[in-house]
Amino acid sequence: MRVFMFPGQGSQYVGMGKAAYDNFSEAKRVFEVAEKVTGLPIKKLCFEGPMEELTRTFNLQPALTAVNLAIYEALKAQNFEPEIVCGHSLGEYSALYSAGIVSLEDVFRLVLKRGELMEREAQRRPGEMYAVIGLSRQKLEEILLKAREKGIVALANHNTPVQIVITGEKEATSYAAGLAKEAGARVVKLKVSGAYHSPLMAQAAEDFKTFLKEIPFHSPQKIFFSNVSARAEEDPNEIKKLMGEQIESPVRWVEEIENIFAAGGRDFIEVGPKTVLTGLVKKILPVEKISLRNVENPAEENF
């Protein structure tokens, strides 16, 4: 079965999406809708930057979603579609649209509000995030337990069996990062302003749940997998509930990809800029049993 994976924050670069925009009217329409709904100069941010403005959470969430969905619509125009869809963190909103759960206009309403709330909480309750490479989840959980003596720290993204992102208050998270280093891990501080997918995002999550009540969710037309449950979800009300929790919940990417593979997913295609998710899947699944590729310029693809 064919799987479309949509990337999230961290995959952006200045110039992203231009190839799809230049070659497909369907891609142009996505950018037009994004700009109309958000009031932001999405094309200019994506194609010209500057990087500092593009990377602002408030701007980046709709901008990256526009790029993902412009590429998706270009693929769809060539009758190249998935049976299964998923996305990493912000990328899950692209998956919602591609599964037919929300409309194009509503997906941009959602990511605009999500970006606004997450940026607000990052300013109110600043935090840090670190990628920890080389420790098992169990070992890292033990370290986090100890580090919680210093404050709030949590597991944010379980990206591969030995690449896990931690998140939380600055003192507690940097202390946990230090302990992980002592235990032999490689530790990389992420260039983010907030402690995303942590309890510091609780107020953003509450406000987002209120906003979600206004947005109609429909039954998925493709198999949709959730970051929060790591399972395929069919009930639109349950999907809406999970999307409300996602801001402050860990991304269970390893379990999600393993469950997609168990459900028959074999042809994994990253739809969006860069190859972050392709790299993660290589470290989760037996590569000899799957095919993996990234599609960023649909005009160059042969289907």
UniProtKB/TrEMBL annotation:
Keywords: Acyltransferase, Transferase. Residues 5-295 form the Malonyl-CoA:ACP transacylase (MAT) domain. GO terms for cellular component: cytosol. The active site is at S89, H197. GO terms for molecular function: [acyl-carrier-protein] S-malonyltransferase activity. It comes from the Bacteria. SMART domains: PKS_AT. The keyword Aminoacyl-tRNA synthetase does not apply. GO terms for biological process: fatty acid biosynthetic process. Its EC number is 2.3.1.39. It holds the Pfam family Acyl_transf_1. It catalyses: holo-[ACP] + malonyl-CoA = malonyl-[ACP] + CoA. InterPro entries: Ac_transferase_dom_sf, Acyl_transferase_dom, Acyl_Trfase/lysoPLipase, Mal-CoA-ACP_Trans/PKS_FabD, Malonyl_CoA-ACP_transAc, Malonyl_CoA-ACP_transAc_FabD, Malonyl_transacylase_ACP-bd. It is an enzyme of class 2 (transferase). Belongs to the fabD family. This is Malonyl CoA-acyl carrier protein transacylase. The lineage of its organism: Bacteria, Pseudomonadati, Thermodesulfobacteriota, Thermodesulfobacteria, Thermodesulfobacteriales.
